[in-house]
Structure formats: C-alpha cells, structure tokens
Amino acid sequence: MIEEAEAVFRNWKESPDLTRSRPWPYRPAPWPDELLSSWFLRVAHGLTLKPYTLAHATWRSVPPLLTRDIDNMADPRIVGVMAAKVDVPVQRAWETTLAAYDGKLVERYAPGGRNAWILQVGVRHRVRGLGGLQYCPVCFTEHVYFRRAWRVGFVTTCPDHGLRLLDRCDQCGSTLEPHRSAALHLCPRCGLDLRQGSLIPASRRVIELQRRAQSVLARGWGHLGGQILGWSHLYFDTLRIVVKALSFGVRSQALRNAVARRHGGDPSSFPKGAKTSIEQMCVGDRHRVLDLAAPLMKAWPERLVEACQEARMWRSWILHDAHDPPFVIADVINEHLTLRFYKPSTQEIVAALAYLQGTGRPVLKADLMRLVGDCQEVNAIFQAHAIR
C-alpha cells in the first residue's frame, strides 16, 4: 500500500494545478511516533482552519477523513497527499499509520479492519464511542500530540513518567475526540484541559512488560523463555492468548485468583457491561490484566503452567479460538495442560469383569463400559467371556 501512496504523492507533486502541487503554507513534519490523525489536526489548527474545512478543500471528502478511523484505514490517498502538501518523504508519512505495524505486531495487517492489539475507537459518523485513543497528561505538557504507540492494546503506561495512560476526560467521562475540539489538549464536551488529567501511578511490572514488548516490536524479533522468536508477531500472539485466558471465559476468574495468590495483583471481576474484547477494553481493565500477565510472561513457561493447573484451566479453555497458535505456547499447553483419555489395562478390565460376575446378576457389556470406559480391548474381553 505504500507503493500506492507513492503514486498519489507523485501525481500531486507533478500536477500542473498549483492548488494540488503547491505545499501548504504551514507544513510541520510529524513528531516522533505521531499518529496520522494527530498530524492532520495539527496542520489544520496551524492553518487556522477547521479540520472539516481543510479535509473538504483538499480531498473533497473522498475519502472521508473525520467519519473514519484514518489511522487504522491507512488510505494511500490520505497518506500520499499529506506527504505532498507537507513536503515530507512518503515513508515518513506512512509511519504515522497503524498499518506500518504490518508483519511486526500482526502477521498481516488488515487496513480498516479489526487487527489484534489495535485499539478500536468505535467510530459512528463523527462520534467516537470507545476509548481507543489514550494519552499521558505529562507528555501533553511537553508536546501536545497523540503517539502511535498509544493505539496499541498492551501499551497502558507512560514509562518515561511512570504513569498509567488515560482514555477519557476526567471531568465528563467522555472519550477523546480531538477532531471536534479547538485544540488537541481540550475536551470537546466540557472544555477541560487534558493536561490536568489524573496522575495515576503505573504498575512497575506492567512498565517492565511494556518496555520488553515495545523492544520486541522495534526489533522485529524477540525471545520468550529459552526460545528465540524469529518474527515479533509470534510474541504478541502468545501474549494475547495469555491475556485472553485471564480476561474472558468461565475459568478466567479462577486463573486470576491463582495468579494473584502466587504473584500478587488485583483478581477482581470486571464491572458489569465490560467489553469482551481486548481491543475494546478500557485502559484501567487492560492495565490490571497485564499486571497479572506480566509474571507469567517473565518466567516462561513454568508460572503459566502452575497457575493454569491450580485453576484447572486446560487446553480447551486456553486455545478454544486460537486457530494457529505459536509453537512457543502450543507446545507448552499440549504437553502440560491437555487432559488425555485414560486407557484401562487388561488386568483392570478383567478385574472389573470379575467384580460384575460376583454380583450374581447377568453381566452386560454396558455395565463393564460404565466401570472402565470404552475401548477395543473391552469388546475383545467381553466377547471372550460371552463365548465361555
């Protein structure tokens, strides 16, 4: 898709129409790790234009910008034009989109679709119904812009300031909708300065887990326990399976209790009406679950196996919807958390048959199967008994 953005970039730069080829008078380059939507809004504010006015004047609402999650869509028509009008390389503009995580965070990114670990903002027209946009109040006091990392589900803290991220306005509780505000740091509903948001200390082990995960994401490979993972998405697929086991399902509460007894943390149940998808959970719930997942990922795989065995969470509960789980976790679960069928020995079947004969009642094969189960050897021994 970056090739399509390159084509759009050249088409606009080489156009004889000066309204297309001429850069905007205000053209700031993206800040480090800035989101595409944040970059576009900064440009609009710098040009003293409403975001809708700039979007319509530039794209004629094709594609629509403010009624879509443009960070997730990664539309080449938006990326290419932004690069041309701000006069930055297309590669730098592409890195503001979430699709740049393709092959690293996920094996194959689906632009505009649901991707593992990419937080959903719940776009409906211009309203954002979910808290998929996060921020750090202290970071906002330094530079007001939204980071791309803040749209990733396992990112719930600001390691630089040791704080938990926020995903709602402290005063009115509304989700962050900067496209409807006069400035990125203002709540559009109540006008609160988001830089005055609550300073909530983050869990140290969540910060450690997040730093390790972000390092894996930056490198493109990682390791877990004694195994090297050649592709970073295998690490994140494994982490997601662990977090889902702790979050959802009838056995999740028992697993949270087991982890909390062994390693500490908050095992309390989620509030009524909580979302049943990691990508839709609020930052507080994700932070609490990641605090329980952190010790399991640190001493791999012993702690995971011990906690699951205590909670009686077996393979069918952990991998019930994982179609192709990474080997690093599938091998552990198949070896330690699989309830295998028991096959009775010949001596056990013969002893059970003798017991039934001792009751003085007619011996039926169904009675024998109720005692020892069903297998081919039961049929053979019962037939030999019937012949005798």
TrEMBL record:
Residues 25-165 form the TniQ domain. This is TniQ domain-containing protein.
